[in-house]
């Protein structure tokens, strides 16, 4: 039967969110994007999506209460998240480099290699904006505490350590528009550098002196490892692959954002409801970010991304666009099981994805996660930072690198 996009939700970390129909579909840009995707789905009504809906329903099994957006979100002018976060992120990379003081020249150079100020600083920006939004919600003061800013540094260090290790596992040769650490210094040193960055992040975390915060962020580190193992494997049962893909996406990308947001909310106020809002926002925006990343792997050039395109296919990894394309081109299933390792597999899979609706459907799924993130953050008291986090959801959808 055709895949039905009914509003679904659960408490599972990778859940397809429940979607508010009020503001999200009223905003002009989002409405236009949804219309394009809806047109595609209507045109593709003859496509068969065998049992996909039931898979998603099992994976996303619980429905909660619905909430509407606050009037302030729909009527007020959104704030630029990059401008609002700039003050708290000033000297971010210099402060990280100070934390990463190393005695040997090679280790120091490797540790500073990606902390050159040229990254997007996406995670630290979300963290400081969430800190200010939660602080204002609790006590009408948005100033970021020193411990909250430390979470921003820690999140970026954990993320970067995972990139260094991922590049070794994947034998990647470029990252952020330059050669990877493993290609410049070798795999052994790269592994040690990633370990060192993670160790320093753990020391910084311990200095905060809050065992709850330590527990929250170490869960994110655990998820990163579990997510990598999920990526190394694949499901023979094609009906389980999408659930596997979403779980991997949460653990490898969204978990760190979600737990970092939760950590700063805990430091902001004692209310568990606020902690859950922060966590849910980070989870949904993180999954959406990765879904768009998977789309860009097929639609952007290497120069834009700063890394090779179709990288996942070349590594034998089937992402959202491929899994959706399988419904129109079942022959992709055999390629997935052999991890695209026969000559011509990667090129043929690319062609199938571009001929199918996989890109449009993955983008639509990212939109829905972003709408859920907007719905969650709108539960906080109105503030410039809260509105900037709403705006950030739209930026995630519109990004091209």
Cα-atom radius of gyration: 21 Å
Structural class: mainly alpha
Strand order in space, largest sheet:
1-2
Strand tally is 2
Give a nutshell description of this structure:
By secondary structure, the protein is an all-alpha fold. It has 21 helices and 2 strands.
Structural summary, described in words:
Strands 1-2 form a two-stranded antiparallel sheet. The two termini are 35 Å apart. The N terminus is likely disordered. Helices cover 68% and strands 1% of the residues. It is mainly alpha-helical. It is built from 21 helices and 2 strands. The protein is globular. The longest helix has 28 residues.
Question: How does the SSE layout of this entry go?
Answer:
Elements: H1 23-26, H2 28-43, H3 52-59, H4 71-75, H5 81-89, H6 92-99, H7 105-113, H8 122-139, H9 146-170, E1 174-175, E2 178-179, H10 181-185, H11 187-208, H12 211-232, H13 241-268, H14 272-299, H15 302-305, H16 311-314, H17 320-325, H18 332-337, H19 345-355, H20 358-377, H21 384-398
Antiparallel strand pairs: 1-2
């Amino acid at each position: 039967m055709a895949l039905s996009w009914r509003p679904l939700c659960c408490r599972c970390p990778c859940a397809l969110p429940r979607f508010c129909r009020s503001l999200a579909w009223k905003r002009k840009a989002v409405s236009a994007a949804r219309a394009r995707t809806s047109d595609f789905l209507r045109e593709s009504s003859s496509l068969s999506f065998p049992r996909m809906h039931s898979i998603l329903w099992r994976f996303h099994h619980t429905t909660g209460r619905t909430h509407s957006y606050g009037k302030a979100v729909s009527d007020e002018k959104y704030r630029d998240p990059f401008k609002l976060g700039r003050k708290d992120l000033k000297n971010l990379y210099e402060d990280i480099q100070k934390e990463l003081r190393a005695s040997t020249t090679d280790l120091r150079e490797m540790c500073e290699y990606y902390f050159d100020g040229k990254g997007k600083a996406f995670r630290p920006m979300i963290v400081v904006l969430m800190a200010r939004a939660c602080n204002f919600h609790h006590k009408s003061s948005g100033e970021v505490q020193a411990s909250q800013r430390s979470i921003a540094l820690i999140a970026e260090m954990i993320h970067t350590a995972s990139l260094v290790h991922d590049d070794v596992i994947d034998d990647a040769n470029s990252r952020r528009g330059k050669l990877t650490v493993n290609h410049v210094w070798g795999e052994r040193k790269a592994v040690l550098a990633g370990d060192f960055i993670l160790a320093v992040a753990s020391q910084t975390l311990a200095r905060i002196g809050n065992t709850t915060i330590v527990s929250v962020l170490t869960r994110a580190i655990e998820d990163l490892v579990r997510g990598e193992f999920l990526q190394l494997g694949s499901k023979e049962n094609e009906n389980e692959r999408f659930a596997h893909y979403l779980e991997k996406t949460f653990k490898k990308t969204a978990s760190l954002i979600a737990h970092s947001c939760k950590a700063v909310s805990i430091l902001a106020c004692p209310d568990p409801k606020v902690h859950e809002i922060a966590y849910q926002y980070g989870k949904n925006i993180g999954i959406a970010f990765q879904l768009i990343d998977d789309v860009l792997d097929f639609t952007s050039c290497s120069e834009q991304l700063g890394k090779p395109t179709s990288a996942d296919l070349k590594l034998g990894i089937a992402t959202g666009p491929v899994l959706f394309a399988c419904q129109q081109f079942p022959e992709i299933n055999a390629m997935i099981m052999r991890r695209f390792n026969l000559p011509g597999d990667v090129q043929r899979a690319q062609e199938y994805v571009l001929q199918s609706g996989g890109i449009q459907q993955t983008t639509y799924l990212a939109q829905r996660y972003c709408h859920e993130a907007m719905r969650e953050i709108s539960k906080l008291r109105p503030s410039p930072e809260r509105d900037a986090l709403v705006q950030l959801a739209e930026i995630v959808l519109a990004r091209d690198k």
